[in-house]
Amino acid sequence: MPYKPVLTGIRRYETDDDMEYTFECRGFDPHRTLFCGQAFRWRETDGVYCGISGGRYAELFDNGDGTFTLRNIEKEDIPYWRSYFDLDTDYDELVKRFSSDSHMRVACSENPGIRVLIQEPFETLISFIISQNNNIKRITGIIDRLCEQFGEKTDNGFLFPTEKQLYGITAEELAPLRAGFRAKYIADAMEKLKSREVDLDSLYEKDTCTAREELKKIKGVGDKVADCVLLFAYHKTDAFPRDVWIKRVEQKLYPDGLPECIKGNEGIAQQFLFDYARTHNI
DNA sequence: ACCCAGGGTAACT
DNA sequence: AGTTACCATGGG
Q1: Domain A6-88 part of CATH 3.40.630.30
Q2: Could you report the per-residue pLDDT of A216-227, keeping only the tens digit for each?
Q3: How far is the CA of A102 from the C1' of C9 (A)?
Q4: CATH class of A121-232
């Protein structure tokens, strides 16, 4: 069965109805998870991670005893955040499986606590169109300007603009983002979403290959960007985004192909290998 | 000045 | 089908 997270409707944060939610998640590392290049809208100050996703604001901190607290969230959004942090997947079990491969064993042990997020598809699509041939710092800046220019302002910052808010936008109107040649790709994405030539809602139920081909109808979306969206939004864990670092890993560590133990979870394994490759400058 | 960055397109062999 | 220049921008 394809995995579909429980998503409640997009809703504004309301200051007089906030709550805390504490959950257990042994070994979870928020910093590694939120700043490893799968999400671009979290900030950390004094051990508190503040972010906006899917139109929802949250503050997250580590209680130091294997539990974590989400603060200033709405009660009905608990299922959203449980899904977002993929809390119902046992990563200890996954890492155990991965560790039968010697490279994966090192990659996992050196980067404990990474989890693959389950994000909102539209935000993820636009974010990873922006990511192409770009670095994480500048990607973050462009997305910040996108939210400030076109997203709704709330007490806790600007929301990511909704699909409807960007319908019909042109590359010229996107110029202030300084996204360069990627502006025309965003404009093309908005055309194809508006016309329903590409339907993000339908992709949950499609297999990875079919969904990948549909995303690639958008100009500026190739295999890599498509697989990022399939993995980071739709949680299709067999999607395998090949960026420059992963290509080096495949050449140097796996010239004869990927190990059997990551089959079906190539995308999650990729997240460990991505950090491994960068810290060791492979 | 040069190189690279969570790539993709179009125009070539 | 496989290679290659080029694409905007900013940081090192």
Answers
A1: no
A2: 999 999 999 999
A3: 39
A4: mainly alpha
